[in-house]
Amino acid sequence: MKKSHLLTVTVMIMLLPFMGFSQEASQNSSDDLNAGFYLKAGGAVTRTPSADSVSVDFMADVNWRNLEVTAGIEGAAGQAAFMAQGRYWFLSGKAGRLAPFMVFEFDQYKNISFRTNTFLGIQGELNLGSWGAFGMQLGGGLKTSTMTGLSGLSVINWDVLLKLYLDWNIRPQTKLEFSIASYEDFRYPMFMAPVFGIEFYNWFNSGFMLGAEIQMRTIDLFTLSSYVDGVAFKIAGGIRLK
Fold this sequence. Notes:
Layout: H1 3-15, E1 34-46, E2 53-64, E3 67-76, E4 79-88, E5 91-92, E6 96-109, E7 113-127, E8 132-147, E9 153-171, E10 174-181, E11 195-203, E12 208-219, E13 227-241
Antiparallel strand pairs: 1-2, 1-13, 2-3, 3-4, 4-6, 5-6, 6-7, 7-8, 8-9, 9-10, 10-11, 11-12, 12-13
């Protein structure tokens, strides 16, 4: 199936739960602006020892009514990256909610290359009540890569962004998320190299958060030559201000 056909079919499937319900733009009961700040540290172990890495991330998010914006920077040996994501939940019903979203990421590896990833798409969530939510992101966009050591040689590709996730509310302040995605916050391989992830976060009454993440990276998952390329792990801490 062509990528364009996959995009059309999946968007239609995402819209089905919202059909037949009374639909209206969601309105928060409060206009308060709230923000969170997080620090993550961890590393990755890969099939190629020279590609193993240790990294530190600083993330921040801001929520206002139906708008959510997240931005962050990552530092690793010889590499730096910046990312920003935004979504606006314009449609809400008893079954769930729907939002357009945008993702932008920029990274530079030593003096060898720099890359950008820009995606636009749609995100939907099905409400599972007190259990949590099941969601999907689907989008398309451009990936650019410039080799600074080869007289600025640039390569541009169109690619698909896809993420399926299940948020499980173990307790009101404790969340476990299972996901399969074509990307990580600071890593955007070509499609068909999905990442399986598990994230755990616990919020305290004081506003502080502690958590952990682990991702298993695969290559050519749906072919006979598929293999696990590596495992990444991070611990996280942060605070939310209201």
